[in-house]
Amino acid sequence: MRGALDVVDTGRTSFGAMFSRIPWGQALLAGLIMWVATTIGFVLCIIPGIIVLFLLYYTNYAVLEGRSATDALGASFTFVKDHLGENLLLMLVAIGLSILAICTCGIGFLVVTPVMSIATAYTWRVLQGRPAA
């Protein structure tokens, strides 16, 4: 994600930059909270788990901006809620590309994964009204 944000911000990245400037403690805490919330959602039924995943999708991007884990969860929820149509469209594109990648016996994921990572970072930046490279 750090690399995708660097590409969106500056137009380039490097391997070393992908692992720098990451608040590991907050990222791990946010991941743990998301895992618990998603697990509870899937235990209740499949649909609540999918909704939780969708609403908290941008949590790690918010953590990379220096927010605490709990603030990042709230920021992701608010961001998805405020831009629901755009995020649903991005999710549908991701599902479609994933289906195409599966049809290539998984080899297509070599292209789909970085493309969707940059598309998600671009969506995060642009829908916040921030410039992208």
Automatic annotation (TrEMBL):
Query: What keyword terms does UniProt attach to this protein?
Result: Membrane, Transmembrane, Transmembrane helix
User: Is Transmembrane helix there in the keyword field?
Assistant: yes
Residue ranges spanning the membrane: these are 28-58, 88-112
**What is the protein name stated in its UniProt record?**
Integral membrane protein
Organism of derivation: Janibacter limosus
